[in-house]
Amino acid sequence: MNLFRKLALILVPAILLIQLKTVKAEASPSVNLSFDKNFYDRSQTFSAKTTIVNESSETLTGTELMLSIFPALKTGAPLESAFDKQKYPIIRQRSYDALPVGTTEVKLTRDLSILDLDEGVYPAEVGLTTANRQTFIDRSFLVIIEPREPMLVSVIWNLHQPEHRLPSGVFINNILAQLIENKPDNQGLLRQQLTILSEYPALKVNLAISPVLSEQLSAMASGYSWGSDKKKRVVSRDSEASQASADWFSQLEKIRKSGQAQILTSPYGQAPLTAFSARNWRDNISEQLALAKEVSQEVLSLKRPPRGIYLPGLRIDKENARRLSAARFQYTIAQTDSSNTTSAPRPPLSFKSKNRRLTIFSSDREITSWLRNAYHEKAGQELTAMLANRILAGPKDGIVAIAPDTAHWLPSGQLLQEIYSTLTQTEWIKPVTLKSISKQPAKPARLGNSREIPNGDDSYQTAHLDSVYNDFRDFASATAPANKLRRRLQRQFYITQSIDYLGDVDEQIPAIGQIYADDIQQTVNEEFSKVSLATPTKITFSTRNGKIPIAIVNGTGYPIKAKLLLSGKDFLFPDDKKSVALMPKENLFSSNITASFVGLSKMKATIFIGNREVASRYIEVGVSNRLRMLVISISTLLILGVAVAIYERGRSR
User: Fold this and answer.
1) Are 295 and 211 in contact (CB under 8 A)?
2) Is 80 exceeded by the pLDDT of residue 507?
3) E strands along 249-348, which residues?
C-alpha cells in the first residue's frame, strides 16, 4: 500500500504538470499584421488589420493590443535593421479587451493626406500581451510612394537539380519524377515554376536551365530505369513520368517562344568557376563552358546557344570574366561587391576583353538573402518594401537583379505566386529580361582574382579530386574529343566539382559526386591496363648499331596517343622518347640504337599515357664477339705484314 501511495505522490503532480503545460500551449494565441494594399500614395487611406487567433478553449482576459508605426527607414537602409533602435512611434493604437475563442480582427484606418507623411518605408509592429505578461509580436511595413518612372527589375531563377544517375545511366531514385509531376491536385516544384509563370503573361523573367537537369529530364522522356544496377525498375517511354518529362519541355518551349522567359545556361557541372582557379584547373573552364552551350542548345532545341550564363554561388573574378567573354557569353549575374550593403539599384558593369563585352549585373544581396527565408504570407508586403526602398534610393539608371545564390533552391508555389503578383501589380516596377538590357550603358567592371573555394572545402574536395583530375587529364590527353568514353568521364568529372557537394551538403542530395569520382579512377585504371608491351625479352646484334623492334598491344578498342621511352646506360638512342599512335590491337614500331659495349646489357622500354607509366619491359641486348675477333685478326695480319716487310728489307742489304 505504501508503494501505491508513493507512486501516486509522484504521478499525480506529473500528470497535473503535463495538463498545465498543455493548457498553456493551447492558450498561446497567434497574431498577424497586414495592410489592405502593398503600397499607397500620399492621397490614399491605409487600413492596417491585426488578426488574432485564440485556439484555446477559453476566452483570454486581461489582454493588451498595441499597434505602432515608426518613422520611415533611412534611404537605402536594409529592412533587417528596420526595427533596430526604434523609440517613438509616429502612430500608435492601444486597446484592452478580452479575446474570445476563435479569430478576432482589429483594424486601424488613417487618411494619409491628413497625416502628411513623406514617401518612405515605415516599419509597423503589433504586440499582443496576455494576462501572464507573455507578448506575441508580428511586423510589417507601410509603404508610401508616389507614381513615377518604373524601376527595372530582373528575376533570375536557376532551375537545377543534382545528378541522380549512376555511371550506368540508371537513376538512383525517382525524385525528378515527383518534381515534374503534373496532376491537378499535385504539381511538382519544377512543374510549378512553369505553370505559375504562364499565369502571368505580362511578366518577363530569366530561367537558367542547368545542362545537368535538362539532360536528366531528356533521358526520362525517352524511358528510363531507376533503383540500382542490380535491382532496377524500368519506366517505359509511354509511362506517366516519361510523358510528364516530355510535357515539361513542351511547356518550357511555349513560354520561351511567347517571350516571357529568356533562357540562360550555367557551367555544365554547376561548379563555381572560382573553384577552378583556386585549384589551378583553368583548362577545364573553357571546356565546361563550351559543353554547357552545346548541351543547352541541343536538348532545349534552341536555334543558337544561350548568350547568358548563371554562375553558381554568384561568384566571379577577373580571370573567369575573361573566359566567359572568350566563350562568347554576353551577360551574367554575380555578387560583384562583397562590401556593398546599400539597398539601391545598381547600374550594370561592363568587362571588355579582346573587343568583346561581357555585361555583369549585380545581384541584390539583401533580396537574395531574403529569398531563402521568405514566408509567402508576408512576401508581397516585404518585397514591395524592399523595392520601394531601392527606387527611392536611386540611381535612375540602376537595375535590381534578383537571383538565388544556392544551386538547387527553388521558391515554393505559394512564394512564387506572391512574388509574381507583386511584380505585375506594382506600376512603378518594370520586369525585364537580362538580354533586353544587356546593351545599356554600363560602368567599367573592377574585378580582382579570387582564390576562394565557395562554401568551404573538405578532404574529399581537395586530395581526392586532385587525384581524380590527374587521372582524367591523362586519359583525355590520349583520346580523341569525340571518344564516347572520354565524353562520359568528362561529364562525370565536371559533376564531381558541383557546388552541390561543396560545404554543408544537403543530406537529401545523393552522393553521386563521390560515386563518379571513384568510377573515373576505376575506369581509367581498367582502360590503361589494356595497353601492354609484346616486345621480345632478348635480342642479339652482330654489330653495335641496330634496330629494336617494339610491339605494343592496344586492347581498348579505340585509338590512343602515347609516348614510347627507351632507356639504358650502355645505349645511345637518337629518338629515345617519341609519340606513337596506337591503333586497336597490335602496333609494330622500331627504333635505332647504338651499343657502347660488346657482350650483354639491359635496356628498358616504357609506355606513358599522359604523365602515367602504363607498361614497361626490360630487354636483354647482346652484341656478338665476332666484331672483336675480326678486329684482332686484322690487327694481327697488319703486324705480321709489317714484320715481314722489315725482314725482307734487311735481307736485301
Assistant:
1) yes
2) no
3) 261-264, 308-310, 331-334
